Amino acid sequence: MAISKERKQALIKEFQINDKDTGSAAVQIAVLTEEINQLNAHLAVHTHDFHSKRGLFQKIGLRKRFLAYLKKSNLEAYTALIEKLNLRG
User: Fold this and answer.
1) CATH number of the domain at 5-85, please?
2) What is the DSSP string of 18-80?
3) 9 SS3 class
4) Quick one: 58 exposed, middle or buried, by C-beta within 10 A (0-12, 13-18, 19+)?
5) 67 vs 28: CA distance, rounded Å
6) How far apart are CA 45 and CA 32, in angstroms?
7) How much is the pLDDT for 22?
8) What is the model's pTM?
9) Angle at 54 between CA 34 and CA 63, to 5 degrees
10) Number of alpha carbons in the 13 Å side-chain half-sphere of residue 60
11) What three-state secondary structure class fits 3?
């Protein structure tokens, strides 16, 4: 259920601010969104996997906190990221 190294590197390259950026809020939100999408697909098939469901809820909460931080600190980047990831839609 974890995303592959190649996919994670592609997400980092797409959302990074500069060449050394691997942990900014935008990058972490993009990686969490990919993991959330994969967990949703997994739970659509395995409806009684409650441990994965708990992990999904934790990732959603973490992404929510990152989005709140980004909205508070940089509203323009927040709106661009929301549109690019097709969230809130």
Assistant:
1) 1.10.287.10
2) STT-SSSHHHHHHHHHHHHHHHHHHHHH-TT-HHHHHHHHHHHHHHHHHHHHHHHH-HHHHHH
3) helix
4) exposed
5) 10
6) 20
7) 85
8) 0.93
9) 40
10) 11
11) coil
Structure tokens at 52: 């994965």
Assigned token pair, 39: 């967990």
CB 28 within 8 Å of CB 17: no
* Nearest-angstrom CA–CA distance, 8 and 49: 24
2 pLDDT more than 90: no
Report, in angstroms and rounded to the nearest whole number, the Rg of the chain calculated over CA atoms. 14
Domains of the chain, residue spans: 5-85
